[in-house]
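Ligand: zinc ion. Inputs:
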Amino acid sequence: MHFTTLFVGLAAVISLVSASPVQNKRALAPVYRSCQNPKQVAMTFDDGAPYIWDADLQATFAKYKAKATFFVNGNNWRCIYDPERVEGMRALFKDGHEFASHTWSHANLTTLAWDKIHSEMWKVEEALIRILGVNPAIVRPPYGEYNDLVRSAANARNQTIALWDFDSEDTLGRTAASTQALYKTLVDKKVSSIAALNHSISNSTVHEVIPYALDLLSKAGYKFVTASECFGVKAYQTTVPEVNKDTAAWKC
Ligand SMILES: *[C@@H]1O[C@H](CO)[C@@H](O)[C@H](O)[C@H]1NC(C)=O
Ligand SMILES: *[C@@H]1O[C@H](CO)[C@@H](O)[C@H](O)[C@H]1NC(C)=O
Ligand SMILES: *[C@@H]1O[C@H](CO)[C@@H](O)[C@H](O)[C@H]1NC(C)=O
Ligand SMILES: CC(=O)N[C@H]1CO[C@H](CO)[C@@H](O)[C@@H]1O
Ligand SMILES: [Zn+2]
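Predicted complex:
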């Protein structure tokens, strides 16, 4: 019995040692789906942010002293360089909300070649550096679709991949009431922690579901955390002074 355990243990050590040079050749970014600690909830918003309801979302979160995370696209529902969107993002950022990459145009990264993946990733990083002065350390691939090429591209860019473990399904044509019911079921199940996916481009998400969900979750004793706190990673690789200068180049 002891020999078996020892043997398995040794075998594991040996395979770790021999696997590491191979891994280094083409290291893959880690993929996170769930918070590291119990009673945490990360409310994350994709696709919009910037979108037209950001200020309303900001006010709702302020009521609960809660922080959200925005996985932004550069050019999806709106252009990230639209002056109103720039202003909205800066206001959220100043309030302590977190920003991460959702890539430039919401393409399915698993269909793209290496260079195109990098360009989808870089263009939105450049926008966040220009607008907020931060280079994100977290990327969420559109549709949650990734393969090893995407993981190695993220790793080469010093980024981790963040997914979710609760989909509020607000893009699937649900009514606000049925999305609220999904949150209710989740809280009733007393799940340990929650990394929730929502879409800030949905009117009913922003105005009906989120106020309900924040109330429910805070009463159930969950602590609202950003994606980086939830997954236990850094939010940003570097922070640089805001680069507000040459805005003529800020185009979608
Ligand atoms: C993304 O592309 C892969 C590979 O072609 C495909 O299997 C998958 O269904 C696509 N996902 C979406 C959401 O379009
Ligand atoms: C958004 O939803 C609210 C109700 O929650 C409604 O009053 C408003 O007209 C909607 N706005 C748009 C642009 O659909
Ligand atoms: C990589 O990102 C981390 C934060 O996640 C940062 O501390 C580190 O400086 C970055 N490394 C490089 C080479 O940019
Ligand atoms: C815009 C977007 O990413 N929509 C996705 C949201 O999540 C649902 C469920 O995972 C997907 O079906 C949508 O494509
Ligand atoms: Zn998306």
